[in-house]
Structures are given as structure tokens and as C-alpha cells.
Amino acid sequence: MDPVGADRERILRFLSEVINQTTTLVATARLLGPSLRDQFLQLSLSAVELHKRVQRSPRIPRNMPILIFREADSTAKQELTNTVNVSKQGACIATSSIWKAGERLWIEQPGSHLRALARVAWIKTSERTPSLMGLAILGCKDFWGLEPFHPIRKNL
């Protein structure tokens, strides 16, 4: 379960403090042995990874069609596939094409022609296709329309 609201903020503050204190301790303590120094460094790195996971937008399971194609050539091979889950600035999608981490591509919602540039964040290949690919959506704060609509109320 993803922490929300005040719990999320408390967790992020705690992790930031762990990162700050352990990094300072490793950098300034002269009497730490190499083994203890490595343990504190590992604690700091683990806290950084957990901080990233808590800070990211929650993932929402959503199976929807998505068109993907390479940034350099929109007229070349396009793949119509599906999302596995989405967040405000990312997605996990199924793909039968070969991609590299860091590669940039276009994603498009077929019915709306809404298009955004994305970067391949990770790839999980398997013997069977399709593979899974994590995308970071660039330059679009809420590609999937996950922000709740808040109409402006007028006092009459």
C-alpha cells in the first residue's frame, strides 16, 4: 500500500534525515572502521532508494491501448500495445519491440491523438513476449488525466 497525506510526508522527512545523518557520519567520523563505514553508507543508499519509491506518484492498474514509436522516426514502425499501470508521469507497458534503457520515444493515446515524449526508464525482458517497459513521461505533468477535476465554484 502506498502511504498518503501526512504519513507520506513524515516518512519522507524521516528518510531525508537518515540520508543526511548517515552521509555526514561517514564523511566526518575518523574513527569508523571500514566495515562500519560501509554499513552506514549502505544504510544511506537504501534510504535514498526507499525515499524515491515513497516520493513517486502512486501506480494505478490500467489496461489501455497506447501507440509507441521511436523519437527519431515517427513514420517508421509503430507499435500498438497496452499499459499495465500508469502514474501521473510514467507508465509500465507491454512491448514486443526491442528498446534500450534511456532511449526516447513518443507515446500517443490512439483515440485522442494526445502525444508526449517519453524515456525508457527500465526494461524487463522474458523468454515470452511481450516484455515490460517502464516509461518516464517528459514534458507532460499528467498525460493520463489522473488529476481530479476541481470545478471553480462561484459564490452566488
How many domains in all?
2
CATH class of the largest domain equals Mainly Beta
Q: Which structural class best describes the helix and strand composition?
A: alpha+beta
Strand order of the largest sheet: 2-3-4-7-6-5
The value of Rg in angstroms is 21 Å
Amount of beta strand: 25-35%
So what's the overall shape? Answer: elongated
Instruction: Give the strand tally.
Output: 7
Sketch the topology as an H/E string, one letter per element: HHEEEEEEE
- Helical content, roughly? 25-40%
End-to-end Cα distance, whole Å, is 42 Å
CATH topology type of the largest domain? Thrombin, subunit H
Discrete helix count: 2
Q: What does the largest sheet look like? A: 6 strands, antiparallel, barrel
Q: Overview of this structure, please?
A:
The chain is of the alpha+beta class. It has two domains: 5-55; 60-138, Thrombin, subunit H. The protein is built from two helices and seven strands; from the N terminus they run ααβββββββ. The chain has helices at residues 5-28, 34-55, and strands at residues 60-61, 65-70, 79-87, 90-95, 104-109, 114-124, 131-138. Helix 1 (5-28) packs antiparallel against helix 2 (34-55).
